[in-house]
């Protein structure tokens, strides 16, 4: 029988859990065919599919700017970046499939709003500088989170993260290079960079998730070696790196309470969590439009899925003969 506050399912034993946790303790990776608690599998599918959806929906805000890039160099960089995000979605959907999730089920959960994706991608991209600011801050925040997840106990997730992080590093660098250039450019460029920072700073802090006290899944996922740091710890790392660099670039961070404590940590003012939840639920921002765009892309791709199925059926029929 399941005990209160226990993650042991009715068909699992305390001994199985102890052996599983001992493996994690020894630093072993858990692989797809290994025994694992049902709750570990369920939480990982939730996390990895949510992460995959974020990569795929994350192509939309920046993709809108490909045709308006100011130079061929910036355009080719942006095209490569958006294409990378599609690849990240693919690695992650595959990682979730190793746990028994199906592609159809995950896509359906996204399109019917049963699954979440990162709140950050429901914000509009208002100017070209947003592309640079997303690279610097959003990819920068993603790297902090993903570097932590590269050490996760589930092998397929951890290995996907190692590969993704190296590409995110390029995304981060191109964004920083662009914003630093504009911050030191003409008055119009400086204004564009500052305006982008004003709009993206707080959403970037929020995308690292609710404060630890409001993050119910953190406890068991850190015990099982998936989340090796809490949301607030990752957010602190992000601010400590980015606040001094943004200031050094000559920009103003839109937080009057921001300051560096004696211990070296940069402290932020209160975060507007009402906005965070409203954006995640699609009550504010572009949630409806983003999903409508994904739905249209899914519908447009129906013939590809049908053709693949017909090809597979034919191959099977030939093999059976
Ligand atoms: Fe990515
Ligand atoms: Fe990225």
TrEMBL record:
The gene is paaG. Its EC number is 1.14.13.149. One of its GO terms (molecular function) is phenylacetyl-CoA 1,2-epoxidase activity. InterPro entries: Aromatic_CoA_ox/epox, Ferritin-like, Ferritin-like_SF, PaaA, PaaA_PaaC. SUPFAM superfamilies: Ferritin-like (SSF47240). It comes from Deinococcus radiopugnans ATCC 19172. It holds the Pfam family PaaA_PaaC. GO terms for cellular component: cytosol. Coiled coil: none annotated. It comes from the Bacteria. This is 1,2-phenylacetyl-CoA epoxidase subunit A. It is an enzyme of class 1 (oxidoreductase).
